[in-house]
# Entry
Amino acid sequence: MEFLKVNNLCRSFGGLKAVNDVSFTLKENTIKAIIGPNGAGKTTLFNLISGFTPLNQGEVFFNDNPIHGLQPYQIAANGISRTFQNLKLFPGMTVLENVMIGRHTHSKSEFLSGMLNLPWTWAEEKKIKKDSLEIMDYLGIADHAGTDATSLAYGQQRIVELARAMACEPKLLLLDEPAAGLNMRETADMAKLITRIRDRGITVLLVEHDMSLVMNISDEILVLCYGEKIADDAPLAVQQNDEVIRVYLGEDDA
Amino acid sequence: MNIELFSQYLVAGLTYGIIYSIVAIGFNIIYNTTGIINFAQGEFVMIGGMTAVTLYNFMPMPLAIAAAVIITMIIGALIEIVFIRWLVSPSVLRMIIITIGISIITREIALHVWDEKVRALPYFTGTAVTSISIGGVHISPQVIWVVGICTLVVLVLNFFFSYTLLGKQMRACSSNRNAARLCGISAKNMVTLSFVLSAGIGALAGCIVSPITYVQYDSGTGLAIKGFTVAVLGGLGNSMAAVAAGIILGVLESFSIWIMPTAFKDAISISILLLILFVRPGGIFGNKEALSLKEF
Amino acid sequence: MKKTRHLQILILIVTVISIQLLTQATDTSYYLTQLTMSAYYSLVIIGLSLVMGYAGQISIGHAGFFAIGGYMSALLTTHNLLPYKDSTFVLILSKAGLLVSRQDLYGTDLLTVHPWVSCILAIVITIVIAYVIGGPVLKLKGHYLAMATLGFGIIIFRIVLGSSIFGEADGLSDVPAFALLPGIEVSGKMPVRVLNYYIAWTMVVTGMVLLSNLVNSRIGRALRSIHGSEDAANAMGVNISKYKLHTFVLSAVFAAVAGVMLTHYNGGIGPSEASVMKSVRYVAIVAIGGMANLWGALIMGVLLNFLSLRGYFGSMDDAIFGGILIIIMLFAPNGLLRLEILGRLKKAKPKTGTEQA
Ligand SMILES: Nc1ncnc2c1ncn2[C@@H]1O[C@H](COP(=O)(O)OP(=O)(O)OP(=O)(O)O)[C@@H](O)[C@H]1O
Ligand SMILES: [Mg+2]
# Structure
């Protein structure tokens, strides 16, 4: 059984092939990084897996279940959670409320029970709050529970997004450039955090430009260029891959 | 049904259709430069018609129409300057509500300036009963005026946007406001200009149809929703397609009288609007590939 | 949080009772008529506030749902079935106790549908229409959504105005009283004026309790997240289209119930209740109250409807609503009655971020 299996994904925008025939697999409880130049199609690949962009061709299997063609919220309910390259926190909601949304798929009060304020919903709300605070505590942002999420510093906002995604209790976490906009110390912290998340039993697929971070923490690296996969290997092997060197350093230096 | 009646309906549909197209073009001009739908578009048509009727008491008709168009253009500019120009990146919801408010206020002012009475300009040539026979079909000369002037408007607009510097600048703003600003084009002035242009076109439409359809302080809303239907049918922002779409809607509406009571004529065209919005929000002429990238 | 909610409801109840006692003491109980009507309109408005403020969707067609409720119950409770009394269908209905025999003002015998049955039927029809319309409409955004809901409102308006069965321009009248329970009837008759004031306000209080519970529940949080970022909400497993649709239907039901009740109270309904201007007025009041603010919507709903019904705005009625709409949207797009304004005064912190479309 494959944890995540992606077969021949294709997606084009007009004439542009943003993702072209990409296949790969992901083993449970590992960290895999996707790297590539700007516009290589990394975010698009994430959007295809998480259902935000409909695919033109290909298949995605999660624990052998097909998930291509599902809506994002269904894929989230299946245990795949994601963050966004450009932060998408809920404005006007506190950090705690943002993270509590993450517990959505693990709670079940609906319109009627909500309107009638049935006693069992109180217990559920309490549990949602407790679970969210626990995750926030784990990621070190519990102090900010009552702050408006979008008023935090940028680095903190990234962690809130991470907390929100973790609150879904995903089996697979997709992180789109988690260290973008962070300074060196914050980036190092983020690297530690991601390893700890993996150690908690969550598989991580991440897009990242920061090479030191990628090389240090990932078990495997997939390299995309102009929508095509040009390498998919262990970090050291990728570092020595001729094509990757050519793409990253330019043809002349190769 | 005899061929005579059939062509009578067809001509009526064509006439209304062309008017709808003109209102739709008014929507498109503002939409293209600002990305907003001006819910008060129909009010320009009403003001144009009403002003021309009033001025006609004091001056010859061509002069009255010209003056009415200019006055409406000034009102259009004022509306933009007072209500819209100074807003910093307003949300769509806010713009919708503001233009609806403008539409209500304009209508209420019109009610107080004029009254509830229905008015009309006389036929430009001949009277209500004059008709020209073309290939056995009797056509009112006013229909010819409507079709002629509207065609002219479309051609002039096309020329303006394709060949004049100002027109090109407006188009530049619509495709990329920031880039246009970097090239030294004042995006704000272009927006004002788009209101002026769209008010003028609306007013002209109001003048030339008034002999056929009459105007009243509240006749703007109906026209606006038809115009919007046509604009969507043709694909929002696409003025040439709006002409074709307008004729389609006009003819459909005209023939709908056969199967439904006249009272439901509006309900029919609005049902068409809903249907298009549900099925093809990009319009019937839009290309599927391009539309899939757009949000509705 | 929960405490303030209870306190707010308590204040509402106390206010409702005090106003009634005050009118009694000052011999001005004629105000109660307009307060009762305002209460029913406020039901529409708090429902719409849920759609606009919490789910972030605009509807310029809510008068349509009010009219569906009102017209359905008016039609069913006034349409005389006596001529068909021997048809099997009518026989079955009458056997099932769904029909009532009564006499109209001129003493003619009538056989009509029972108000309870027509009320329930009106609500069911509203739910069906709201689902059918809401499904595709709520997929649209911005202008398209606004125009589609506006279009829906106009279609309803045109239908009631153009159909003889709905009385065309005259509307339907002679709608009988609606006995909710024996002795508790919704009608505009003088002797039951105080009773009806309390019936209407009991409904408003109930509506407020239900909706303020809802917005403070898991669903309310999900709705606010949709308003904040649809993509992020989707990624967190929130079924956006389902929640938008359910909110829309719920608010349609509020509008329809208001329509049913007010029609019985007024003894009739006319096409103006379905007009675009009515829909715009509801939107205006929600906007003034501050979109995502049920209490603001309620206060403004009662205040403005009361003033308008008492005729304080004279012939400027529509103009005033249009004017308020523009001024609020230009200068206070977040509404007049925002609790945050108080908060902002306390700790003047700069506002960050641009507006969401
Ligand atoms: N919705 C869209 N419509 C049109 N083109 C798109 C869309 N989304 C992405 N693209 C194009 O697809 C290509 C791949 O984009 P993508 O965002 O996946 O790149 P990326 O690898 O994530 O880049 P970056 O490192 O800058 O985040 C780009 O050329 C982009 O312009
Ligand atoms: Mg990217």
Observations:
- Chain C touches chain A at residues 210-211, 213-214, 217-222, 224-225, 228-229, 231-240, 246, 250, 349, 352-353, 356 (CB under 8 Å).
- Residues 240-266 of chain C form the longest helix (27 residues).
- Confidence is low (pLDDT under 50) at residues 339-357 of chain C.
